[in-house]
């Protein structure tokens, strides 16, 4: 490094920071920033050095390529021809001798004199990874590069990759001058993740833009498989605010198929190769809970650092790797996230499918939109040429070179990949829906047929046959009035919670536990408790399939329920989320796996063994204990103490006492650690004895559906008498007026979570007149009812 001619060829990571993007590009500047400032917080970044942008310009100048580039641009040569010409010219040129010497001297230093040190050679463009210039990854990265000649060749190929067709087209669209964008090269110690695992993490939810979580994808081997969409990775989600308080809030652990892993091709002539993952590894997570939490903490620290440094909130897109030799985790790249962080926070769109069609395939949804078009099934690159505006691209996986075609389509469907694969990244950039990891989309979708791609139904995306009708609505958050009456939401599906939390609200007035049990658990809790003594082998096989990775079947129920409930509590944190304990009827419980053994047959399940009466009964008492254990995990392990509980269908005051006692026996004591316990008001006895019930509970939530049935004696599911079912009936309204006034006099909270205020504006107005504290609504009705309530409050001051 003593020769003045070499001073600016190379800069080590410890010598660069985020301000040095013009000299070393976005990737290298970020690596240097982290290497300098975040090691003190325990974040490990592999050491390395940057070949500077100045070196690139010197290479172009000495080889005459700068003049050639400017001539091509002046002559108006089209993108594809310009890219091909420059790539060929660079690959035929020689790197300056001084540059070669500088690279090789520092390569030796990086390896402490050891020959053939394994390094990653990464492209770092000076216009890359900026908040207004995304599509990172258009240039090439070379992994497991060993030896001096291989390193120099990889560097030259990195320079050539600045002129890939996709990179040239993108710069044209972003109006970057080709002659003013340089390439720096990062040469970084390889992490032996081929012997362990690697992946990406985002410090927000990539679909909704929700800022309070870290989303982690992980798969075995080197990380390229995730980005290229070759594998479906494990997916984890962690809540940042309570993580910072020292809790362990893992909200989601979704097992990916992880079919292949990318490893070093020792002696094979190639840098890397894919090999199958053994079945025993595919059915287990590739990260431990401790590693998930460590990565989430690192992601939060990196985000905090960049937000402070750049003086504005900066969600991050981070690549990580685990070394299989040492067991240590490393951060190998970090850049500002450039899709969700740029979206408007004052308005958002909602999409709703208005009809159903034949389901073709399902996979992970990307975004929350719906798109329709003609299926364009791509089985080889030649098929791309027929892509038309408005098609739906259906393929095994996408490639960065396909981006010009991807910009024409209305939606994307892939067989492979997860939420951070190339197809997912580009679809978010383009604002189009994508369903990835369908497994067999290219087999089950017929080329040339109309299809509908729906990402508006939660985290599972669906592809339907035909062109289905849907609606899109734009909501301006700043135009929604705030009301004295608390406007809360009825929420059931955790996969929609991050989206729904963006609707102006005061929390969740009703979370239905049954949705999580039916969709995520699917097994009767007593069948899990008595798994070892089950005699029905088919039931045992079904349980084994659903609970892969769990030797203790009870823990499966607790974990799945806690993660589902915790996700909704986290989405609305720190606002109240009121969880109703399970309120299945016996016929509904019987439909769960293994349920028939444990449920009596009843003539009228609506009035039978349901709600509070189950919780202390010997037939279900142990199942209720699992529900309590899951709630404790949410409140105590995850730190989500905004979660409150609610008892449904509590017939008598004595029954209320018995439920509170068994809750206490299971570690849920009303008042301890701020735990509030509410009661559903849905039986006439709840109204008549409201004063007595109010002594036991922190408040009531009116279930107007059941209350109306029981006041009027009407089965709303009977076509013969259903027309008589009407919450606006004077008898029902008198009951509501009575209980609201009783609870208000007792100083207790009272709200409503039934359907009526969502359907009838005049019913919402009536509730405001009575002075109700909160109205909990279906999310699609929240905006409309908010406007009704605000108008009523103005004309009816309390």
How is this fold's topology laid out?
Elements: E1 10-12, H1 21-37, E2 48-51, H2 53-63, H3 65-74, H4 79-92, H5 97-110, E3 119-125, E4 141-145, H6 148-161, H7 165-174, E5 183-189, E6 197-202, E7 213-220, H8 224-227, E8 234-239, H9 240-244, E9 250-254, E10 260-264, E11 272-276, H10 279-282, H11 289-310, E12 316-322, E13 329-336, E14 347-353, E15 359-366, E16 370-378, E17 391-395, H12 403-406, E18 411-414, H13 422-430, E19 434-436, H14 441-444, E20 450-454, E21 460-465, E22 470-476, E23 486-491, H15 497-500, E24 508-512, H16 513-521, H17 525-529, H18 537-546, H19 553-572, E25 577-580, H20 586-590, H21 612-615, H22 621-637, E26 643-647, H23 653-665, E27 677-681, H24 684-688, H25 690-694, E28 699-702, H26 704-712, H27 730-745, E29 749-752, H28 756-759, H29 761-770, E30 774-777, H30 782-795
Parallel strand pairs: 16-17, 17-18, 18-19, 23-24, 23-30, 24-25, 25-26, 26-27, 27-28, 28-29, 29-30
Antiparallel strand pairs: 1-2, 2-5, 3-4, 3-5, 6-7, 6-12, 7-8, 8-9, 10-11, 12-13, 14-22, 15-19, 15-21, 16-20, 20-21
């Amino acid at each position: 490094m003593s020769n003045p001619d070499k001073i600016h060829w190379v800069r080590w990571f410890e010598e660069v920071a985020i301000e040095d993007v013009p000299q070393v590009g976005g990737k290298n500047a970020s690596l240097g920033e982290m290497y300098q400032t975040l090691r003190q917080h325990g974040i490990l970044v592999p050491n390395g050095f940057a070949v500077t942008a100045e070196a690139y310009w010197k290479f172009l100048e000495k080889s005459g390529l700068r003049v050639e580039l400017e001539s091509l641009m002046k002559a108006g040569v089209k993108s594809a021809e310009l890219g091909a010409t420059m790539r060929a010219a660079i690959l035929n040129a020689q790197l300056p001798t001084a540059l070669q010497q500088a690279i090789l001297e520092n390569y030796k230093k990086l390896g402490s004199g050891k020959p053939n040190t394994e390094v990653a050679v990464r492209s770092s463009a000076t216009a890359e990874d900026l908040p207004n210039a995304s599509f990172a990854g258009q240039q090439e990265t070379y992994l497991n590069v060993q030896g001096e000649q291989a390193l120099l060749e990889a560097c030259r190929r990195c320079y050539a990759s600045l002129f890939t067709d996709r990179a040239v087209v993108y710069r044209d669209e972003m109006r970057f001058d080709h002659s003013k964008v340089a390439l720096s090269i990062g040469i970084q110690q390889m992490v032996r993740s081929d012997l362990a695992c690697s992946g990406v993490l985002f410090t927000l939810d990539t679909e909704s833009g929700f800022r309070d979580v870290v989303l982690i994808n992980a798969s075995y081997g080197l990380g390229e498989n995730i980005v290229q969409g070759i594998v479906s990775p494990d997916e984890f989600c962690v809540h940042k605010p309570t993580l910072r308080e020292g809790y362990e809030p893992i909200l989601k652990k979704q097992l990916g198929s992880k079919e292949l892993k990318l490893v070093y091709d020792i002696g094979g002539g190639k840098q890397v190769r894919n090999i199958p993952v053994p079945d025993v590894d595919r059915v287990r997570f590739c990260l431990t809970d401790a590693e998930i939490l460590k990565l989430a903490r690192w992601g939060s620290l990196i985000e905090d650092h960049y937000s402070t440094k750049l003086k504005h909130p900066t969600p991050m897109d981070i690549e990580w790797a685990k070394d299989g030799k040492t067991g240590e985790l490393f951060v190998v790249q970090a850049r500002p996230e450039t899709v969700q962080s740029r979206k408007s926070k004052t308005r958002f769109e909602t999409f709703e499918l208005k009809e159903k069609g034949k389901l073709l395939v399902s996979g992970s949804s990307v975004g929350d939109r719906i798109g329709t078009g003609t299926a364009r099934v791509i089985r080889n690159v030649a098929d791309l040429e027929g892509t038309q505006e408005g098609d739906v691209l259906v393929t095994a996986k996408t490639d960065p070179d396909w981006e010009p075609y991807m910009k024409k389509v209305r939606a994307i469907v892939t067989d492979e990949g997860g939420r951070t694969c190339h197809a997912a990244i580009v679809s978010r950039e383009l604002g189009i829906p994508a369903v990835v990891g369908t497994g067999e989309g290219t087999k089950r979708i017929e080329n040339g047929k109309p299809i509908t791609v729906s990402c508006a139904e939660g985290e599972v995306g669906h592809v339907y046959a035909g062109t289905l009708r849907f609606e899109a609505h734009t909501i301006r958050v700043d135009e929604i009035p705030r009301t004295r009456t608390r406007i809360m939401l009825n929420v059931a599906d955790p996969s929609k919670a991050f989206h729904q939390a963006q609707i102006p609200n005061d929390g969740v007035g009703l979370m239905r536990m049954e949705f999580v049990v039916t969709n995520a658990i699917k097994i009767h809790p007593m069948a899990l408790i008595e798994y070892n003594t089950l005699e029905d082998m088919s039931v045992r096989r079904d349980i084994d399939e659903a609970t892969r990775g769990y030797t203790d079947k009870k823990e499966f129920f607790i974990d799945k329920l806690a993660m589902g409930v915790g996700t909704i509590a986290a989405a609305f944190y720190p606002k109240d989320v009121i969880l109703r304990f399970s309120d299945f009827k016996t016929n509904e419980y019987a439909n769960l796996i293994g349920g028939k053994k444990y449920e009596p047959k009843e003539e009228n399940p609506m009035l039978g063994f349901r709600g509070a009466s189950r919780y202390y009964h010997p037939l279900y008492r142990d199942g209720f204990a699992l529900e309590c254990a899951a709630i404790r995990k949410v409140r105590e392990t995850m730190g989500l103490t905004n979660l409150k509980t609610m008892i449904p269908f509590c017939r008598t005051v004595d029954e209320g006492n018995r439920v509170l006692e068994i809750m206490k026996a299971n570690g849920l004591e009303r008042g301890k650690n701020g735990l509030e316990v509410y009661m559903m008001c849905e039986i006439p006895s709840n109204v008549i004895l409201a004063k007595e019930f109010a002594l036991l509970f922190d408040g009531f939530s009116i279930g107007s559906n059941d209350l109306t049935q029981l006041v009027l004696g009407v089965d709303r599911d009977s076509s013969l008498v259903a027309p008589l079912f009407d919450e606006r009936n004077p008898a029902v309204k008198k009951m509501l007026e009575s209980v609201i006034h009783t609870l208000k006099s007792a100083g207790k909270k009272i709200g409503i979570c039934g359907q009526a205020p969502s359907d009838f504006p005049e019913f919402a107005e009536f509730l405001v007149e009575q002075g109700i504290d909160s109205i909990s609504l279906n999310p699609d009705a929240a905006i409309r009812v908010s406007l009704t309530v605000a108008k009523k409050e103005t004309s009816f001051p309390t």
